[in-house]
Structure of Helicase HerA-like domain-containing protein:
Amino acid sequence: MMNAGEADKAGAPTPAKDAAAAEGPVGAEGSAGAEGPVVAENPAVAENPVVAENPVVAGIAAGYAFAGQALELGVLLWDGRCRPDVPVRIPLPMLNRHGLVAGATGTGKTKTLQLIAEQLSAHGVPVFLADVKGDLSGVARPGQPNDRVTGRAGEVGQQWTATGFPAEFLALGGVGHGIPVRATITSFGPLLLSKVLQLNQTQEQSLGLVFHYADTKGLELIDLKDLRAVVAFLTSDEGKAELKNIGGLSTATAGVILRSLTAFEAQGMADFFGEPEFDTADLLRTAPDGRGVVSVLELAAVQDRPLLFSTFLMWLLADLFHDLPEIGDAGRPGLVFFFDEAHLLFNDASKAFLESITQTVRLIRSKGVGVFFVTQTPKDVPSDVLGQLGNRVQHALRAFTPEDQKALRATVRTFPKSSYDLEELLTGLGTGEAVVTVLSETGAPTPVAATRLRAPESLMGPVPAAEVDTAVRGSALHGRYAQAVDRESAYEKLRRAPAEPKAAAGAAADRKEEPSLVEQVVSSGMFKSLARSVGTQLGREITRSLFGTARRRR
């Protein structure tokens, strides 16, 4: 991880060092003496005569004049000019009410993520960023002043200071420069795996039966070859009886699943599954100076496998949901999770998968986690999920085709009523401008505000790969996750199991009908040893929750 000293090279002060917050210091848990960032005073007060002369502007100013801590997004854009006297903000406690950052390609969505992530970190809130394009690693380094940055800061009344933030670099399956993020097949669960394998609903249900069978028999599904071995056994002559006993799983469907697994593995996907499995508690850390750690998951190396990485992101979120305690509404979130390329998650999703996503988003906010979906248009997100996203930053949309125009009209309908002609406004926004509405401190939607956004203070671009490599080698997580481990599991058990009972059967004078392979496995000393070693989690059925993911035993 890049620590505070490294991140603030060039003498840039950290917000924690600048001053105490208006409501007192917001130090991270376990950080002795860490101070919180300053909450900027809101100049949009009722006494402001410039604001008061326009009742619409005055209403917008009042809507964003929060009493507590808030993130500064930018300032009102009115009649083509910036209004620094009317800041547009998000209350910090409302970040766990989720959000949407949307807009056409090239309109500034990535910079908006970076801007929000910086301020969350400064307030002591850990952040998870999915870096699909490879340019969010710059959050770890101070930004570079230039005419564009200076001009933007001047327009919005921003006191811009080049600042880097504590960051941890991760890479899915170790494909890339970051610390490897892996999941076991058991933990990943049948619903998410079905999504990755592109199985239909019947095949998805059948895969669930295979997981249930492996769970109850204590056959550990650590990596792809374990699952392939179990399915291969069930479709073999030795496993026919077991396949029949499972019920609801046909030989043909099991064969389809086996072929899908084989093809999936042949595409090089085995690296993403295995041990050591990533512990999502490592996303919840703060730096010694009290700032939240920004975990940047590098996805550029696997961007040609969008279905895989979007589903893996959902696994991370589901794992957090399983493990975090209920905290209700708090003064600030415990983690904010940015889910980039969100439309990939919902495309061709089964009903069960969509229901699990909806339930996760609805319930995880009470565990202190805010989720921001990042995509091109709100129509990419199912209505049941969209209705739970209280904070909206909508960048420009294009309307070149009838389909584009339909999406534009649908987007407009998702906003509260306002004095704007939103169809015209959304197609005319420039880069770094957006239409914003968030939840106020009372939970009511704020007025719709055309906004010119502030400039990020960290580097707007990637950190050189050599610097990332150095940071990764120096990370406290490197020793835990860098080296893959292939311990004995279902694949090895099913290969070795027949030898012991067959030898015993051959020595018997009165030979009976050979037991099935599964009977041999269950009756063997090896299996009993396995059941003892894995205890309650695998000796009995694994507890599964949303998406069929397995609960982690800490």
About this structure: Residues 282 and 477 are 8 Å apart (CA to CA). Residues 9-46, 507-514, 516-542 have pLDDT under 50 and may be disordered. The radius of gyration is 26 Å.
